[in-house]
Amino acid sequence: MISYIMYCLNIFFIVLSIIIVLYILTGVFNFGKRFRLFILILMEPMLTPMQKLVRNSIMNCLTVDISPYILLILSVYLQRLCSYVVGL
What phi, psi does 77 have (nearest 5°)? Predict the structure, then answer.
């Protein structure tokens, strides 16, 4: 049962990483207004707390919003941790 839960979390973090990469790419390329809005709706619940953490940290002096990159690193780390636990 625990293996099944970890496998589902592994899939969740893979999908989350893809959404984060799409969010980062929408800032660089123009994918359309509706697509960007859809990705923003998906990312906002995760970005808001991360932006508050970055704003209150030493990285506040940067002019670039690095919260999506931190989320991507965290998501990949958690995905690999789930893979390690399951043994995939």
Answer: -60, -45
d(CA 83, CA 22): 23
Residues 13, 18, 20, 25, Cα dihedral to 10° = 170
Contacts of 37 (CB under 8 A, 6+ apart): none
Q: Where do we find the tokens 């940290």?
A: 57
Query: DSSP secondary-structure letter at 87?
Result: T
- Give CA–CA dist 83/28, Å, rounded: 31
The CA distance from 23 to 19, in Å, is 6
Q: Determine the pLDDT at residue 31.
A: 86
pTM, 2 dp? 0.83
